[in-house]
Amino acid sequence: MTSNRFIRLCNECADILRKRSPYKTGNLRINAIKIEFPNADTCRIYVDENVAPYMLYTNEEWINRSGDNPNEGWFDEAAQEIMQYLANKTQGEIKS
Which terminal residue of the chain has fewer beta carbons within 10 Å of its beta carbon, N or C? Predict the structure, then answer.
């Protein structure tokens, strides 16, 4: 895989995470989801919890609040979508 293709795939995966993220103020989607390339063959996509310390609560079941969290599981679903996307793009397979 060329480095340009690798970078493009990583950016596409970050876009999937951004599109799946809840959007109220935009902080989580715009500022907290980050991508880094520590070296030529490594990509790190993550949510900077210093920017969005509430991120965990957007993904989990509400316990001390009435009703259901409409975003519950969004991060887990995005991770699954990203894994499937990468498997499809690289002709790989996901093993459990």
Answer: C
